[in-house]
Design brief:
With 235 residues, the chain is of the alpha/beta class. The chain is built from eight helices and seven strands. The protein is elongated.
Length: 235
């Protein structure tokens, strides 16, 4: 199945209150490999952005003044995501804005045009309950390099999300994001012959063995004798 990593930037936080999309960024993945296909578009929202929003994404009203309205890019966007699985961090936010834009054009919700929507924020909350699960927090926890991310940007964040998703779902090597060129490469680990590796077994010293036995004894005592590994079983 085609997967589309999607992120947006907006004039503010309230789609129902009139805030609008100003940027859409999408990257395509097929069979857990990023392709060279992407969709990226700045959009003139027809209204000013909130000052706090500009501090986050750095996209000014002056920059957007000559950009097309959403209605001019809607068809290309819908064609790009058609039938794919959308992967979004905090999907309710982005989907709310996209659905609001589509409704203004008399079109139905985006969920009817895609296979499904996967929210990586919900995934992360299940995997890391009680911890910070913002995209930046996940990049730090999963060792995804986001040092070149000084502001939010839809296409850049979609790339970071792809990296985070792969590490959340385990199954592929790193997707390397080249900050200089903006290109995203897949770190191939297929075809590596591990049979040539020699693993060395290091026996513990007498002092290490004694320390381990003492630790097991403490665990056994604290558990009321219920420890599975008993000190006397350690040869």
């Amino acid at each position: 199945m085609r997967q589309i990593f999607l992120d947006t930037e907006t004039t503010g936080l309230d789609a129902s209150g009139g805030d609008r999309l100003i940027e859409i960024g999408c990257l395509e993945m097929v069979n857990r490999r990023l392709t060279e296909r992407s969709f990226h578009q700045y959009v003139n929202p027809g209204r000013p952005s909130h000052e706090e929003a500009v501090k986050v994404h750095g996209i000014t009203d002056a920059f957007l003044a000559d950009k097309p309205p959403f209605e001019a890019v809607a068809a290309d966007f819908l064609a790009f995501v058609d039938g794919a699985e959308l992967i979004i961090h905090n999907a309710a936010f982005d989907m709310g804005f996209l659905d609001a834009e589509l409704a203004r054009l008399g079109l139905g919700p985006l969920s009817r045009r895609v296979a499904r929507v996967t929210d990586t924020l919900l995934m992360a909350r299940e995997m890391f309950p009680g911890k910070g699960n913002s995209l930046d927090a996940l990049c730090k926890r999963l060792e995804v390099d986001n040092t070149h991310r000084t502001r939010h940007g839809a296409l850049l964040d979609a790339g970071l999300l792809a990296e985070v998703y792969i590490r959340l779902t385990r199954g592929q090597g790193s997707l390397v994001i080249d900050a200089a060129s903006g290109q995203i490469h897949t770190a191939e680990d297929d075809g590596i012959d591990l049979s040539c590796l020699q693993f060395v077994t290091v026996a513990p010293s007498d002092a290490e063995r004694a320390a381990h036995q003492a630790l097991l004894a403490e665990i056994d005592k604290a558990s009321g004798g219920k420890a599975v590994w008993k000190p006397e079983l350690v040869a």
